[in-house]
Amino acid sequence: MLSIKNLRVSIQDKIILKDFNLEVKQGEVHAIMGPNGTGKSTLASVIAGKDMFDVEEGEITFLGKDLLEMDPEIRAREGIFLGFQYPVEIPGVSMAVFLRTAINEKRKYHGLEPLSGAEFLKLMEKRKNLVEIHSKLTNRSVNEGFSGGEKKKNEIFQMAMLEPRLAILDETDSGLDIDALKVVAHGVNTLRKPENATIVITHYQRLLEYIIPDFVHVLFDGRIVKSGGKELAIELEEKGYDWVRKEAGIEETL
Amino acid sequence: MSNLTENMTAEQMMINTFSDNFDAITSSDTQAITLLRQRAIESLKKNGLPDDDTENWRFTSLDPLFNTPFKFDFSNKSRPFDISKIFSCDIYDLDTFSITLLNGWYVYQNAPLTTLSNGTIIGSLSKAMEVYPELIDKYIGTLTDLEQPGLSALNTAFFQDGIFIYVPEGVEVEKPIQVINIIDSEDPVMVHARHLVIQEKNSKLTLVHCDHSLTHNISFTSSVTESFLEKRAHQEFYKIQNKGPNSAVINNAFFRQKHLSNLVTHALILNGGFTKNMVNVALQESQTKAELNGLYMVDSNQHVDNQIFVDHIAPECESEQLYKGILDDEATAVFSGKIMVRKEAQKTLAYQNNKNILLTDDAKANTQPQLEIYADDVKCSHGATVGQLDPEAMFYLRSRGLNPKTARQLLLYAFAREIVQRISIEPLRERIDHMIDKRLKGELSICDQCVLHCNSKEPTVFNIDVSKL
């Protein structure tokens, strides 16, 4: 489904990702772990199409298509969803207008009729319940005045509305208390389908107790240095990251 | 009709025009007004018109304007006329008491002065000068500063008519009063209109000024409004401008506020070749409030200048300025906002913010916040931004599947909405909202409101082209 080969990414001449390879198949959940500053969020942004990074080498294909050739909105309509680590507050743009536009642009792209106002509202109510959002979103601006937990729930809510093929959740667990974490995980698990895939980017093993990964990869110095099953996450929780770094022969940097 | 002659300074031309037409200009004057005009002419001789060296005129030049051979219409009188033949406001559900000025002259259906059942007097200033000379003399010219090189002196010398409103004590004028300023002339015309608004204690008034041009010809309108808010008076003042590219408008509004009075102003500039709006607020007694809002959306080579002066004279007053602008093509905008906090004005709260979004490299915004504070127990802040749309917000919207054009429109619309939401008259708010939406899609034309069908001319469509971002 998603195939990343020999990816090399820099920002202002600083290499962030190098020799990066990843294969994600339908139905799989991959966890990408690693300490701060190892390139996890860069990976998420590059897949979603943020143009501040230079892709110097390598390729990314999604469902057989060259992803790097596509603008961010085309990637979204093809089925990629990025759950932001820091969802952006957009005062004055209503959640309802924004999401309805997004859904209908995607439907148009796939040759489907737009959702009517009533259909959209019905879907919105259903999906809101999934992530236990109780406030009336119709009259709220995108993320404006949302608490940290609400913003993350709102990301999963948008994911539920857009029904992506591949969801990338960038540090969705950061800043969440255990109750919110369970809600978010429940949302993600409910939306799992055999034909879809999920990439969970996280620093801690905690989220992976609720979203069980098929594969765990450890990112260090811009590349995957170790991969394993879900037990690798538990080992990392117990022993920290240092042993992986040493095993990979990477110098400790400040 | 008289003509400006060539090869003279603009001041000299105007002074000569005044002398040549003295009898016509002063024909409805009270004695005090004629004296006021003579002071104004003396000031013009001494101080001249504003030039590049004049404070607050550095980025807005009058020179190109005065190169035009303008004509004047001094002998016209406020007259009965069926305005609906040439213009109708298309905000259908906006229920107002509507009055019209055509080339600066009051146009009426029944009488030049109307007294409502609650005692409110609305009508022609020229007529009011005749009927209520003592009232007019008590107020007129008391807020303008004739000693500055500015447009106040010019307006004072030349005005003949305009709007007069008097709201008695305790009266809340239910319907908004809508003043429609129309310019319609075959020749390039210069118009000086004067408005006087007197609100007694505990009165309430909503005033909506709409500036329209029904012609593609060159015009220059200067207006001076003097507005008096006595104790606990409340006024909401709107200035809506949707003018042609060859129109120049200079508005100078003065407000004087007494104890516990409350003023809210909205300047909404959707089009206009050359616009300068000056708002001067004197918070003369304690616990008064003034909220000044502005939104300007300009393109091609339009120029808009908003100049604010809020004078905190008394303690415990509150003022807030929020002006936002979207500039396309080679449009230019100036914002100069001054907050003066005098020594006695302790516990002042004064805020000012000006935000500009430039859609092209050629658009320019000059923003000059100025704070002058002589009291020590005050809370003041000012901020100004000139920039592009937030790239993080753009990426967020695009990452959900929105195309860049839609994303930009949503963000620009949201940017403008912060001001639009402050409009308290619902039909007007909805209408402006709709006009802004059209403006952002490049579908708004000044011809939208016009019933003159000038078939010879192409409709002028102004286009803020968001694809350039």
Give your account of this protein's structure.
The complex is a heterodimer of chains A (254) and B (469). Chain A is an alpha/beta fold and 254 residues long. Chain A has a single domain (2-88, 147-247), classed as 3-Layer(aba) Sandwich (Rossmann fold). Helix content of chain A is 35%, strand content 28%. Chain A has 8 helices and 12 strands. In chain A, the strands form 3 sheets. Chain A has a 6-stranded mixed sheet with strand order 6-9-10-3-11-12, with helices on both faces. In chain A, strands 2-1-4-5 form a 4-stranded antiparallel sheet, covered by helices on one side. In chain A, strand 1 (2-11) and strand 2 form a beta hairpin. By secondary structure, chain B is an alpha/beta fold. Chain B has one domain (2-395). In chain B, the strands form 3 sheets. In chain B, strands 3-5-4-9-11-13-15-17-19-21-23 form an 11-stranded mixed sheet, with helices on one face. In chain B, strands 6-7-8-10-12-14-16-18-20-22 form a 10-stranded mixed sheet. In chain B, helix 3 runs antiparallel to helix 7 and helix 9 (404-420) packs antiparallel against helix 10 (426-440). Chains A and B meet through helix 2, strand 7, helix 3 and strand 8 of A and helix 8 and helix 9 of B.
- Helix share bin of chain B: 10-25%
The H-and-E topology of chain A, N to C, reads as EEEHEEHEEHHEHEHEEEHH
How many structural units, i.e. domains of chain A?
1
User: In order across it, which strands form the biggest sheet of chain A?
Assistant: 6-9-10-3-11-12
By CATH, the topology of chain A is: Rossmann fold
Gyration radius of chain B (Cα, Å) is: 22 Å
| Amino-to-carboxy terminus distance of chain B | 47 Å
Helix content of chain A: 25-40%
Poorly predicted regions of chain B: 449-469
How is the biggest beta sheet of chain B arranged?
A: 11 strands, mixed
Number of strands of chain A: 12
Mean pLDDT of chain A: 90
CATH class (first level) name of chain A? Alpha Beta
CATH architecture of chain A: 3-Layer(aba) Sandwich
Overall radius of gyration of chain A:
18 Å
CATH superfamily of chain A: P-loop containing nucleotide triphosphate hydrolases
Structural class of chain A: alpha/beta
Strand order across the biggest sheet of chain B?
3-5-4-9-11-13-15-17-19-21-23
